[in-house]
Amino acid sequence: MEQVEEYMKVIGRVNAVFYLDCEEYYCTQRLLHRGQKTDRIDDNLGAISKRITFFKDNTLPVVKYYDDLGRVFVINGDRDTKEIAFEVGNLFKFLKKNNFELKNAKPLTAPPPQKKRERRPSTPKQKDSKDNKDSKVKPEDVIVPLATRPPTIDVPDTGRKDGLPTCPIILIVGGPGSGKGTQCKKVLERYKEVVHLSMGDILRNQIATQGSADEKWGMIGTLVQKGEMAPQEVTAELLIEQIKKNKDAAAFIVEGYPRDKLQMEEFNKHIGGLNFAILLDCEEYYMQKRLLERGNASGRIDDNLNAIQSRLTFFKNNTLPILKHLDDQGKLVAIDGDRDLDEIFYNISQVLDFAFFGRKPQPPGADEKEVAEEVIEKDIAPESSTTTGDNVANPSHTEKLDAAEEALKNAKVVFVVGGPGSGKGTQCERIVQKYGFTHLSTGNLLRAEVASGSEQGKKLTEIMEKGELVPLETVLMLLRDNIIARAATSRGFLIDGYPREMEQGVRFEDEVRESDFLLYFDVSDETMTSRLLGRAQTSGRVDDNEETIKKRLKTFRDNNNAVIEYYSKENKVERISAENSVDEVFAAVVRAFEDRGITAASKQKEKSTGGLKDAKVLFVIGGPGSGKGTQCAKIVEKYGFCHLSSGDLLRAEVQSESDRGKRLNEIMEKGELVPLDEVLALLRDAMEKKVSEGVKCFLIDGYPRELEQGERFEKEVAGCTGVLYFEVSDDTMIQRLLERGKTSGRVDDNEETIKKRLETFHNQTKPLIDHYKDKSNIIKAEGTVDEIFTEVQKYMDSKKW
Questions:
Q1: 332, 322 in Cβ contact below 8 A?
Q2: pLDDT above 50 for 377
Q3: CB distance 356 to 251 below 8 Å
Q4: Rounded to the nearest 10 degrees, what angle do helices 284-298 and 305-314 cross at?
Q5: Does 62 score more than 70 pLDDT?
Q6: Domain check: are 616 and 742 in the same one?
Q7: Is residue 486 part of a domain?
Q8: Hey, which end of the chain has fewer CB within 10 Å, N or C?
Q9: Cα separation of 343 and 84, whole Å?
Q10: Which parts of the sequence are annotated with region: Disordered (predicted)?
Q11: Residue 53 — very low, low, confident or very high, per pLDDT cuts 50/70/90?
Q12: Taking a C-beta distance cutoff of 8 angstroms, is the pair 286, 177 a contact?
């Protein structure tokens, strides 16, 4: 911002700001790749991290400043350079056409306000050395590089040592502040017979009890306070002691150990038999921030700035290399740790469920978590297991091939083709619901394979990072495997947006199976252009302009005409006029399916809500910043309610990668609202599952948001027992959200945006409160958390739950 002020003094005019918006991961990868080619000293991971942190701290506020003046154009920078250049060129044409004057821009009349910002902890510097004395680069500018090569482990893991329990040992690893302890607590809540061993807690307990009386432990306490390691032999002895003490454990979750090569070797030498490790992968900035906040609240001796810097540097240079060693052995499962706590735990529980309980009966290929499966199948299953031995009558390779061919032969395959804006995605969703088909999108299949971490996924990542096209052979293999995997449970398959050109169609029919027919949503260019321009008004995409749309439509026509002509000669095209309303178009789709002899799936019996008739349901309503989430947690703790959030249920379903989850993901990726039918089905399923486990009382968080949601919930799921409405003034909610915005880093956490959200909330909530006035209890939520919960308890205690 100082440079902005200086620029205004000297020059004083800014017509527009082009902001290339990129994900941090891709920025880092590009710089590392450049560093390998150019040997630039500032293209190492430590320096890159520091530069990105500086950008977020100092440059993003500049973008926000100019955005408030209406001068920022956001460009997606995670694309091919030619696409970006094309968009930039269009922007220049637009600006030139308008004489570089923006109608909605506010004039720059005064210097930007100077805001004091908390300095983030600096990255540790490299010490002076003879090698850099004559260099033009100052020693303090050289960042400690990241050690990336795995060390040679001289003591291999030869299995569990005699005298120790034989149950699984699983590591939960991550940098300091990655949230390992929080996730371990969640593991203990879910898996009651698992024992959690935190090396940090074990050491701190020993220091607290013996540090003042025992000279050795006093010295160890001093080391820990500096962020350094306790002696290797001490940590190994303590861990072995705890393992022996808990000999009846179903499994051990070990946190914070091993931290380096020597500890890894000590583990292999004295314990052994590691099953696998789960890595919580977090950005360094967020780890620093969490530790500083924790230190202020807890007073932990090792949560001071110097110790934090030392621990982070140690983690990068010593722990990450041994994790690479475990990864090379197929014993590492990496999970994104910079997300909501429940989202992270959902992924962890998927891995542990498989480890502890094995695969649940389901169609082959239904579980995409290949990394976890490979690790656990290799390391958890006993080698001598009688259930997997050669004497079991498992299907032979020939039998499996025959079964696959049979599955392909019986599967119905419908190609779905339509231009951008033709509405084919919406129609596919309806076909899935009415006919029980499975919706397959090649884009989603590729993304799922990349996310799985499989060898195939890693190869795909390399291809796409280079900006190259994925080979058609790979796409066909993914389609074939997914059709075989789901053939037993699906009535047919919609191959969305495929084929885009003749070769794709011909090779699919040669190498997978012949298609039954092609569903073509025929729309004029004028209609598609109109729809896409209408979408642009809400999408905010600069490239949703008429010139770009015309080019996309031309490409579609050039490729599509030959495909339609070919399949028309085969009498396989069902041409649907998609100019009309969604319902009218779907009526034509139904006629086409009936003409092809495909009938609607037999309607499943309506799920009985008999099990929910005695359920007690409490709707929880409150604006953003009202604190209802905190109060829900307290209600769960005191009254034993089951807390259900429609948002959490949607995220969990998407992450499960079920057919429904994939369908929901496609809807959300388009920026569309999830249909109410889907939300109600998720809530009903979750409640019925909990009722079968003996739960009777439910908190439905942030629901209903509008009157129709409440009415349909009561009609189709269960009656509403009461409504808790946390009433807070707009001023208080704005203040809380602005305070949160200081640490969230979100550019849109500004007062103007917040006011719009609150206006929407009030418009939707008033009819709800009026409708449920006889069941509502209004909680004044302006006070402290405890004061508010006192009022909540008065209401809860007045009811019979």
A1: no
A2: no
A3: yes
A4: 140
A5: yes
A6: yes
A7: yes
A8: C
A9: 33
A10: 104-142
A11: confident
A12: yes
Report residue 612 CA to chain centroid gap.
Answer: 32
Show the domain range for 680: 610-797
pLDDT tens profile 159-187? 999 999 999 999 999 988 898 988 999 89
DSSP lists the bridge partners of residue 521 as: 418, 576
φ, ψ of residue 269 in degrees (nearest 5): -75, -40
Q: What is the mean pLDDT of the chain?
A: 77
Q: Name the pairing type of β-strands 517-522 and 438-441.
A: unpaired
Candidate from 161-175, 305-319, 378-392, 531-545 with smallest mean pLDDT: 378-392
Please give the tally of structural domains in the chain. 4
Task: Please tell me the distance from the alpha carbon of residue 464 to that of residue 260, in angstroms, as a whole number.
Answer: 34
Q: Helix, strand, coil shares of the chain as percentages rounded to 5?
A: 55, 10, 35
What's at 545, amino acid-wise?
Answer: N
Q: Answer for the pair 172, 194: CB distance below 8 angstroms, yes or no.
A: no
Is the Cα torsion angle 619, 623, 624, 625 positive or negative in sign? Answer: negative
384: in domain? no
Q: Which residues, in sequence order, are CB contacts of 225 under 8 Å at separation 6+?
A: 301, 302, 304, 307
The CATH number linked to 27 is 3.40.50.300
pLDDT at 136: 35
Residue type, 291: L
Report the distance separating Cα 733 and Cα 624, nearest Å.
7
Q: Is 177 exposed, middle or buried (0-12, 13-18, 19+ CB in 10 A)?
A: buried
Q: What is the mean pLDDT of residues 398-423?
A: 75
User: Per the omega criterion (within 30 degrees of 0), is the bond before 704 cis?
Assistant: yes
Q: Which residues of 64-89 are buried (b: 16+ CB within 10 A; e: fewer)?
A: ebbbebebbbbbebeeeeeebebbee
Query: Based on the domain organization, do 579 and 695 belong to the same domain?
Result: no
**How many angstroms separate the CA atoms of 55 and 65, rounded?**
14
Q: What is the pLDDT of residue 246?
A: 92
Write out the two tokens for 390.
């050669």
In a domain, 154, yes or no: no
Tokens found for residue 509: 């029919």
CB 765 within 8 A of CB 622: no
pTM of the complete model: 0.34
232-245 helix and 199-210 helix, angle to the nearest 10 degrees: 100
Give the residue from 308, 299, 315 showing the smallest Cα distance to 259. 315
Q: Which two tokens stand for residue 701?
A: 């968080």
Sort 126 into a burial class: Cβ within 10 Å, 0-12 / 13-18 / 19+: middle
Domain check: are 736 and 636 in the same one? Answer: yes
Q: Is residue 482 part of a domain?
A: yes
